[in-house]
Amino acid sequence: MSDRTSFEQLRVELMSLYEAGRYTAGYELVEKEEAKFPEQAARTTFWKMCLLSLDGRLIEALSTFRQGLQDGMWWHESQFTDTDLDALRDLPEFKELVARSVQAWEQERKKIQRDHLLLLPEPPSSSPYPLMIVLHGRHGDKETNLEQWEVARRLGWAVLSVQSTQPLYHGAYHWDDPVMGLQDILFYLERTLKTNDIDQERIVIGGFSQGSGMAIYAALSGSLPVRGFIAGATWWPDVESLAALASHARNLRGYFICGEKDYTLDRAREIQIILQQHKISFTEEFHPDLGHEFPTDFETSLKSALEFIFKE
What we know:
Blueprint: H1 7-19, H2 23-33, H3 41-54, H4 58-70, H5 92-109, E1 115-119, E2 129-135, H6 142-149, E3 158-163, E4 166-169, E5 172-174, H7 178-195, E6 198-208, H8 210-221, E7 228-232, H9 239-246, E8 253-259, H10 265-277, E9 281-287, H11 298-310
Parallel strand pairs: 2-3, 2-6, 6-7, 7-8, 8-9
Antiparallel strand pairs: 1-3, 4-5
Helix pairs in contact: 1-2, 2-3, 3-4, 4-5, 8-9, 9-10
């Protein structure tokens, strides 16, 4: 395997093996590469549990789970509804380990603090800067989120990566409670506007997967002074919550980046129908060979999105 530059590349390669049913190969890939990403240990450990379960290696899966807990890892209860773990589900030891994990999660979630990263344009340009607020997907965090969105800096944008305060496991977060998510976004937006020279006529919000849905929710809410949203591989569990907000949204444009092979494509289509019904302008960039991921040339997609959002 070639040298990799990001955790996202590992995820994409693993998903390719997973979708092909090559669970042993997927496990071996994670075993080989996980040491490069110690901050993602809870995620790679969970991947290994799932792959071992799918491969029928139940004793090894339980051992991996047990060792993870001993190493101080913990996971949100929703993680264990994953069908990849069905072979383990009725085992008494698995149930005991799940209970230990949930107890540890309850203790750790109370310690979660708000967090963010703010990048200014590179190379430096004259202020005020336009601002792009970017949201990670479910299982994401503020750092890995910037592996794709950082290209906005080269286009002269300040980039604010907001991390949710809703943990799935150490180093991974979600936006299941959109009210709490909106509070996190507003907290850092207000701080950024106070401490930086931002062009408040040129603020955009974007996201990937569940972060894309959260970006749409935030934009439609009217709580943020955004001109539009950029939605990549869009997923959101409660489409009707967006319908309620869309009825009041004004002067907003959206740009969807969709892949024909993306399992969330139907959800993006549902959201687009709601936007059409409420006369909210949007367009779509469609990639026939794209799965649940960013397009390879994301910078070009970003330029097209900004051109659409700010066209006269």
